[in-house]
């Protein structure tokens, strides 16, 4: 029997099949998507002001795909200005391309790589707690090797960033400049979609439906996503049999909110999540 997985995220529309839909379908799961988060870019003009001057930092941190989007918006606008003014030399100072790059999340790394902006190979980890132990020695060693090296870091983050990286940097005496590159808010469709889904389920119960369309799983992708959903319909969420988290940080927050976490994806990727759900349900051989 086909089981249903509700994903609290927006569905990718730039590909024929969303990667989560594709991977879960492989194990005979039916997926539904409810977009939870929306974001607004910030500090674009400030980033542009930084980019036209020599960098005052030796490294840069990207904590999410939205930070990359804001960065891309800033450099794209400058490049358009360069073309309009028919300037041969780049408006962006060339030393920016040489920064040491540190990234939280493989998806963030993929999106940044597509820009072809930085020349150095980035250091990438799925979580900030994993990134810090490798990032800090790199910056400290470069300062030892070259006294003129700027060992400060430009830290691009959102309004709901965690304290892990700032705390680690302060403990290591590495100065950083934090720039808020986006703010997170609830998706405009979230309330309506949750109400519709809840009403659909109530109707099935009234009609004594066999429940084939009810959710067997619900998956959360961020702590803020958990908050926005629970603010709107906590009882319905608690009635879903199995709840999964895309990573440990989200899982910890779910537990703090009183939810029972059935499963944590081994890695924050569609393939790993789908396989973990299938193994839990005993359907990995399908």
TrEMBL record:
Record InterPro entries: 4pyrrol_syn_uPrphyn_synt_sf (IPR036108), 4pyrrol_synth_uPrphyn_synth (IPR003754), UROS/Hem4 (IPR039793)
Compositionally biased intervals (Basic residues): 196-205
Any one Gene Ontology cellular component term annotated for this protein: cytosol
GO terms, molecular function: uroporphyrinogen-III synthase activity
GO terms for biological process, alphabetical: uroporphyrinogen III biosynthetic process
Species per Swiss-Prot/TrEMBL record: Phascolomyces articulosus
Gene3D superfamilies: 3.40.50.10090
Region Disordered, annotated ranges: 194-216
Lineage, highest ranks first: Eukaryota, Fungi, Fungi incertae sedis, Mucoromycota, Mucoromycotina
Protein's recorded name: Tetrapyrrole biosynthesis, uroporphyrinogen III synthase
